[in-house]
Design brief:
mainly alpha
Length: 395
């Protein structure tokens, strides 16, 4: 007869990796549960094993979290996930900037406080939040989330769109004007803003306001101008290099737009971009995160592998594409699982991998865990007629 400890151990082993990661999102403390309205519901960027701290709430990642919780609510029918999605949405509404209605990128806890572009609001982050809020409005049946999403979108459309359909990366609160520094992919206009197509598309579907569709079409056309014939999206223009994290953001947004709007050029661009990345997966399942001077640099990041796995599963199921996908995705899944944390205190979460300088943060990372959880669930369960729909709650 098994002891109680042995029984618990067996039950833990039976939980599949994607659901173990989803449980981490609920129970690890990565989402703030304290009653302070400034922090409750916001999602921390990571848990630092070395300091036993979570340094800051991350607005972009809280936007992703809304969708991650909604996804696993749909998968498990557990209302705890819906409640947590609502916590995240309400944190955004409570803490938005008073004039613009947008969200600053980080809210540091007192123990870790430091300056980080304190007057800059990142455009990309806002569209991730908008997509989450619109999805939350649909699932929860609460129009206040949609109202907030629309107010954010209207400000961004008025103040951060370029004439060519692309987006400024930043809105500077000091000057109350859009800005760009161009020193890093996230601080320049680029194809990665295509992921905003998801928010624009969801708002159009829910409101039928033509402005969202018009902006989406122009953004999709602008995004593909950064793509080479090979499928690679150039993410750092001044050095003709590619960071695969934003490269795959471009793929995600264009595929979502292409499928939902029946826009064939966007679908083709997304698939070319995905295939360029998957061709680089080696026999160990490793997909390096940086491409410069016509070669990949030896740097592994789990979020990149999760993004590639997720997109690969969707493309393989929808389009029965390149036969290489099956083997490459199997290798990616195995490699990604090597990043899942086994220790009890953070069991189910995922490590991040390497920074570009070669350092390896000892963190249980929130967005990596969200991306990996969804990618693994889709790999193991996704069918075209299954639930949830593959594009509904994209993290």
């Amino acid at each position: 007869m098994k002891t109680e400890t042995e029984t618990v151990a067996v039950k833990e082993k039976e939980i599949e990796p994607s659901l173990l990661a989803a449980e981490w999102l609920l129970h690890s403390g990565i989402q703030n549960e304290d009653p302070d309205p400034r922090t409750k519901g916001g999602v921390n960027a990571w848990y630092d094993f070395n300091t036993d701290t979570r340094p800051f709430l991350y607005s972009e990642i809280t936007g992703y979290a809304i969708n991650a919780y909604l996804f696993f609510h749909a998968v498990t029918k557990d209302n705890a996930y819906l409640e947590r999605a609502q916590w995240a949405g309400e944190w955004v509404i409570r803490n938005a900037h008073g004039v613009t209605g947008l969200m600053l990128t980080r809210l540091y806890h007192e123990h870790a406080k430091q300056a980080y572009y304190d007057s800059w609001i990142f455009t990309f982050d806002q569209w991730m939040i908008i997509f989450g809020l619109a999805n939350l409005a649909k699932v929860a049946g609460d129009a206040s989330y949609l109202e907030k999403a629309e107010l954010m979108a209207q400000f961004l459309i008025e103040h951060t769109l370029r004439k060519d359909g692309s987006m400024y990366p930043v809105y500077d609160l000091d000057g109350m004007k859009p800005a760009a520094s161009d020193d890093k992919w996230s601080r320049q206009s680029g194809s990665f803003h295509a992921k905003a197509l998801m928010g624009l598309g969801r708002l159009y579907a829910m409101t039928h306001s033509e402005i969202y569709l018009k902006c989406a079409k122009r953004l999709a056309k602008a995004a593909v101008t950064d793509q080479e014939r090979s499928g690679r999206f150039v993410t750092q223009a001044n050095e003709d290099s590619t960071h695969l994290h934003p490269h795959l953001y471009s793929v995600e947004g264009l595929l979502w737009h292409g499928v939902t709007q029946k826009d064939e050029p966007s679908v083709k661009a997304a698939i070319r971009g995905l295939e360029w990345a998957l061709e680089a997966v080696d026999e160990r399942g490793v997909l390096y995160s940086f491409y410069k001077d016509k070669k990949f640099l030896p740097c592994e990041r789990a979020d990149v592998m999760a993004q590639a796995l997720r997109m690969g599963v969707i493309v393989r199921k929808r389009f029965q594409g390149n036969p290489m996908l099956g083997k490459r995705l199997e290798l990616l899944r195995k490699k990604l699982l090597a990043y899942q944390i086994k220790s009890k205190s953070q069991q189910g979460g995922f490590f991040y991998g390497q920074d570009q300088d070669g350092s390896i943060p000892y963190h249980a990372n929130a967005w990596v865990t969200m991306f990996a959880a969804q990618a693994l669930w889709l790999y193991d369960h996704f069918e075209l007629d299954g639930q949830p729909d593959d594009l509904s709650f994209f993290v």
